[in-house]
Amino acid sequence: QLQASGGGLVQAGASLTLSCAVSGRTFSTYTVGWFRQAPGKEREFVAVVTRSLNGGRSFYADSAKGRFTISRDNAKNTVYLQMNSLQPEDTAVYFCAAGQPVLSNVRASSGYRYWGQGTLVTVSS
């Protein structure tokens, strides 16, 4: 089970940190990603941190590079998404997901078996 939190209403240029708490004792064996879905748009990849087997590597969508940082704390079964310099186009429901996709497929939502309920991020101009 995944529980996403940390969303809210902020002004452009502000920062937010999202958290994804994952239940279970095999957290380190799962790759955890963040996806987002804006109104009227399809769900899109934001960032991912791979499982320990794949070195805990991070990958980002072009829109997130340089502004967002994903990290994981295996002791707390939690993944964080630090978002800086937020812009109105970042407004969306953010979902965390866990799975065991191969490295070449970590950006695809189809690679994730478990999904959280989403947390809304609204950025005003």
Question: Could you describe the 3D structure shown?
Answer:
With 125 residues, the protein is mainly beta. It contains no helices and eleven strands. The strands form two sheets. Strands 2, 4, 5, 6, 9, 10 and 11 form a seven-stranded mixed β-sheet that branches. A four-stranded antiparallel β-sheet has the order 1-3-8-7, with no helix packed on it. The radius of gyration is 13 Å and the shape is globular. The mean pLDDT is 95.
Please name the defining characteristics of this protein.
single chain; 125 residues; mainly beta
SSE layout and pairing:
Layout: E1 2-5, E2 8-11, E3 16-22, E4 31-37, E5 44-49, E6 58-60, E7 68-73, E8 78-83, E9 92-99, E10 112-115, E11 119-124
Parallel strand pairs: 2-11
Antiparallel strand pairs: 1-3, 3-8, 4-5, 4-9, 5-6, 7-8, 9-10, 9-11
Total DSSP helices? 0
Query: Order of helices and strands, N to C?
Result: EEEEEEEEEEE
Uncertain ranges = none
- Most strands sheet: 7 strands, mixed
